[in-house]
């Protein structure tokens, strides 16, 4: 049996969920404490960002030991308790596997540096660097000790890429996944997994910082099949998701089509680049609705036709809050948050909710660079200033784009530090916590809407299984699609603008049933008028 398409995943950034020890950092016990809340929301699986030992240069994506718990977050016993308690609530865990690279503090790298040739072959060492750029700035190669060689780091200089061409490396990494399977974990998220397969000969590539030279290389598919067979593929309803950096539809169909036995589904990020100016992240630009709509349609239809499967999401720990990017939050926070939610929960794929999204959390509105801790943001700020931007201009860009925007503590209530901790948190709490918090939102508009969406998915196979077809492709305001299953049809209309939008509704739909809307009393007229940020799902 394959994974359950009725499932909804909830992502938790452990550092920022709930602190039970009073050190300002969230922990595993904190997550356990909040299980009743998550059960009330109705989610099925919790994806946990890395909580393994790590120097935290990249907040845990620089792992120094794959099979232990960082004392910052608790103990292995805490983890085991989390798994068993979650089970009582019908919730399972999905763990983050960062297998493209490890921290330079990992013993493999340390042994390699000390001259051990067995471990040197765990890394990608070359006599001469290529011209590739690191995703966190600068050249992607750094001197390997005093050997005269260079090691590859596609991310921070402390995140050394692992050499998957070496079968010993693959075996060690498969053991890591199996270690966690033995702890009762069935679901996994694989970090930047379309970058694991590097060619034997690495060549300069002036296009797009060198990305085409190491992204989606054909051998990646082989490695994924091997990984599947050696680990999670042995669990009947395991759910796996690959984070695909700068990927293509063709590759994503391959990664996720069940016949190929690679992964259950893929994250792609194209829809979250529609507010990049000329493809560059560290710029300011209003989002381009036309590109967003076209991307959703192209991917939705191609994945549907090719039998692939997408992970659907607006937010994660690497993205500023979608509400700040796609919605006039000053005037339409509730409408915008619910519309964004419906636009993916009713689409074809598995929805992911990022902590705080279900209560409409916003970017924190930091006022100084000293509030930011993320390595990528700090490097980008420096890069922007070095390239001639004024400090104010650079700050405005960081404020809009920083990953810290989504990493601020979960807002539980209006007490000090938003009920996250009784000590000063590792990253400051967002300015809005007095109004936007779980206690207030439970009886607000957004949380109950998420509950409803999650419940609908359980009861309507057309939502969890139906095909995807683009609708109203020429609309300048409305992103719409039609789902189909066994003679049933569901039309989902999402007004992405702060103005009313007129839609010509086909006659059959005027007699349909309103399955969901974020406004009351919508008449299904042939000349349908959608309210600002209205979402409307009609079943026939
Ligand atoms: C992924 C993670 C991100 C991390 C990077 C390197 O993109 O989501 O947080 O910095 O990989 O591991």
UniProtKB/TrEMBL annotation:
<dbReference type="InterPro" id="IPR012769">
    <property type="entry name" value="Trehalose_TreC"/>
</dbReference>
<dbReference type="InterPro" id="IPR056300">
    <property type="entry name" value="SusG-like_C"/>
</dbReference>
<dbReference type="Pfam" id="PF23915">
    <property type="entry name" value="SusG_C"/>
</dbReference>
<dbReference type="InterPro" id="IPR017853">
    <property type="entry name" value="GH"/>
</dbReference>
<dbReference type="GO" id="GO:0008788">
    <property type="term" value="F:alpha,alpha-phosphotrehalase activity"/>
</dbReference>
<keyword id="KW-0326">Glycosidase</keyword>
<protein>
    <recommendedName>
        <fullName>Alpha,alpha-phosphotrehalase</fullName>
        <ecNumber>3.2.1.93</ecNumber>
    </recommendedName>
</protein>
<feature type="domain" description="Glycosyl hydrolase family 13 catalytic">
    <location>
        <begin position="11"/>
        <end position="407"/>
    </location>
</feature>
<comment type="similarity">
    <text>Belongs to the glycosyl hydrolase 13 family.</text>
</comment>
<dbReference type="InterPro" id="IPR045857">
    <property type="entry name" value="O16G_dom_2"/>
</dbReference>
<dbReference type="InterPro" id="IPR013780">
    <property type="entry name" value="Glyco_hydro_b"/>
</dbReference>
<keyword id="KW-0378">Hydrolase</keyword>
<dbReference type="Pfam" id="PF00128">
    <property type="entry name" value="Alpha-amylase"/>
</dbReference>
<dbReference type="InterPro" id="IPR006047">
    <property type="entry name" value="GH13_cat_dom"/>
</dbReference>
């Amino acid at each position: 049996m394959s994974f359950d398409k009725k499932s909804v995943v909830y992502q938790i950034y452990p550092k920022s969920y709930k602190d039970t020890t009073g050190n300002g950092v969230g922990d595993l016990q904190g997550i356990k404490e909040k299980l009743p809340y998550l059960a009330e929301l109705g989610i099925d699986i919790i994806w946990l960002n890395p909580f393994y030992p790590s120097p935290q240069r990249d907040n845990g994506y620089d792992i120094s030991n794959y099979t232990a718990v960082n004392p910052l977050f608790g103990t292995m016993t805490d983890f085991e308790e989390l798994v068993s308690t979650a089970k009582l609530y019908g919730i399972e865990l999905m763990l983050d596997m960062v297998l493209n690279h490890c921290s330079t503090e990992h013993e493999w790298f340390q042994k390699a540096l000390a001259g051990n040739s067995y471990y040197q072959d765990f890394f990608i060492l070359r006599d001469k660097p290529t011209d590739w750029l690191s995703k966190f700035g600068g050249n992607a190669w750094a001197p390997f000790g005093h050997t005269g060689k260079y090691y590859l780091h596609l991310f921070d200089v402390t995140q050394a890429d692992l050499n998957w061409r070496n079968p010993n490396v693959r075996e060690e990494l498969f053991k890591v996944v199996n270690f966690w399977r033995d702890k009762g974990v069935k679901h996994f998220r694989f970090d930047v997994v379309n970058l694991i397969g590097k060619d034997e000969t690495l060549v300069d590539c002036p296009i797009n910082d060198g990305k085409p030279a190491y992204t989606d290389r054909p051998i990646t598919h082989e490695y994924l099949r091997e990984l599947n067979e050696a680990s999670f593929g042995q669990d009947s309803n395991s759910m796996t998701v690959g984070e695909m950096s700068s990927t293509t539809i063709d590759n994503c169909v391959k990664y996720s089509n069940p016949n190929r036995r690679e992964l259950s589904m893929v994250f792609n990020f194209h829809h979250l680049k529609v507010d990049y100016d000329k493809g560059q992240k560290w710029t300011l630009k209003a989002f381009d609705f036309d590109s967003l709509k076209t991307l959703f349609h192209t991917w939705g239809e191609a994945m549907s036709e090719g039998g692939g499967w997408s992970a659907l999401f607006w937010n994660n720990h690497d993205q500023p809050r979608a509400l700040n990017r796609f919605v006039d939050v000053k005037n339409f926070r509730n409408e915008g948050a619910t519309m964004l939610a419906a636009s993916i929960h009713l689409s074809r794929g598995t929805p992911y909710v990022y902590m705080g999204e279900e209560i409409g959390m916003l970017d924190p509105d930091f006022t100084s660079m000293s509030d930011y801790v993320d390595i990528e943001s700090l490097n980008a700020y420096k890069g922007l200033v070095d390239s001639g931007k004024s400090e104010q201009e650079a700050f405005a860009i960081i404020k809009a784009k920083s990953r810290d925007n989504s990493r601020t503590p979960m807002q539980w209530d209006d007490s000090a530090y938003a009920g996250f901790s009784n000590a000063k948190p590792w990253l400051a709490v967002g300015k809005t916590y007095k109004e936007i918090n779980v206690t207030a939102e439970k009886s607000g508009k957004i949380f109950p809407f998420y509950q409803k969406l999650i419940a609908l998915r359980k009861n309507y196979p057309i939502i969890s299984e139906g095909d995807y077809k683009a609708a109203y492709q020429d609309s300048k305001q409305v992103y719409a699609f039609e789902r189909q299953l066994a003679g049933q049809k569901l039309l989902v209309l999402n007004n992405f603008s702060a103005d009313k939008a007129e839609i010509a509704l086909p006659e059959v739909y005027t007699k349909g049933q309103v399955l969901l809307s974020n406004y009351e009393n919508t008449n299904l007229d042939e000349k349908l008028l959608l309210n600002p940020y209205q979402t409307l799902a009609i079943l026939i």
